[in-house]
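Q: Predict the assembly, please.
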Amino acid sequence: MQQIINFLIRNKNFLLFAFLLMLSLVFTIQSHSYHRSKFVNSANWFTGGIYGSVSSVQDYFNLKTYNQQLLEENARLRTIVSATKTGDKSIEPLTAANSPIPADSTVQYVYNTARVINNNYAKIDNFITLKGGSSSNIQKDQGVITSQGIVGIIDNTSSSYSTVLSILNSNFTTQVKLKGSEHFGTLQWDGKSPNIVQVIDMQQQAPVTKGDTIETSGKSAIFPKGIPVGVVQDYTLDNSKNFYTLSVKLMNDMTSLGHVYVIENKARVEIEQLENENYEE
Amino acid sequence: MKNNVLKNIMRFVALMFVQIYLFNHINFLGYINPYPYVLFLLVFPFTANRSLYIFIAFLTGLTMDMFGNSGGVHAAACLFLAYLRPLTLRFAFGVSYEYNAIKLSKVSLYGRFVYISILVFTHHLVLFLLEVFNISNILYTLNKTLVTSIFTIILCIVFNILFSRRIE
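A: Predicted assembly structure:
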């Protein structure tokens, strides 16, 4: 017994080192899997608060760019609205009052806004921190987009902050398709350039050409259909000669994000319940 | 004694602040972000209790991980740095370290350079090995380690020279 205690005392530094190293390796391994530990992340009051206070100063210098982006988005939405208005005038427009369908059942996607307070793009696994958390209806696994294109998926939330698994993260995948056809592939990132992402497993029959637009397929409960992702820059057949691998230039500038939309899918619980039932059988 | 503790806390806060707000966003050539926050661990008093030093190194790394959402990679790297420091001190400054007689501001620039380089390189190697976490990307990892180490070493030496007051 005496010898064991002596041994422990003599090697206490090494044991402390080994114990703490184990702990940090556990955190590291957790961080490399998709659903991560709740413990070490920047969605807490301390880190979130510090990021928030400084980014409000930085925001001030970017106001011009944000205004420009908002104007562009407004112009696009106005075009859509005026296009629908020029239809047949004799049909009375459907309003909440005279609609036969209850209003909330038709709204599947609700958009919440949030401010980016920290953004990374130089690592292999990048995360974004948002001001806005569960108190403003932002929940885990909701999609995050800007007016130009997709940004990522909510990873962790606290009451007023949340972290986003960016598309520039090796764990990020989502289904995308070619605009104007239903051929789909899987979007991922090889960790190299923050402007270029890859689409793998796109069917060889797909009519791909350079300059085609890639958008979300709507096959998951996270992103609605038709959110722009990027433009095809280059494409090759993979080794099996059955699938295309595309490199896609992002429409979003991931290195400069200001304000984002977080998409809440009202039908999500229902879809997932149904899918889980099928798996169980 | 109390003065010393306060000085270290101030140094910690200051270095963390510039690290998180400035050096984490440099992205030189697209992927190089130096990590001069390790200077806090490098100039930590040599006479301090070793267990305490290892624990503080762990907390320093964990703080970086919280801000960077990187799991525990900085914590592991800082632990290696802390554990290997006595060995490196002996290697870089020779026998005078044994008598606790040295101060980083009093040794030659060459000794300082060797000491800082070895520890920064070790730290960065562990950091990027764990961050990339893929042995097939080993060349990318080594390249990133080497280039980032050079930047961090330069910054650490510059900071060290700028902020070390010579006591006559």
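Chain B has a mean pLDDT of 85. The radius of gyration of chain B is 16 Å.
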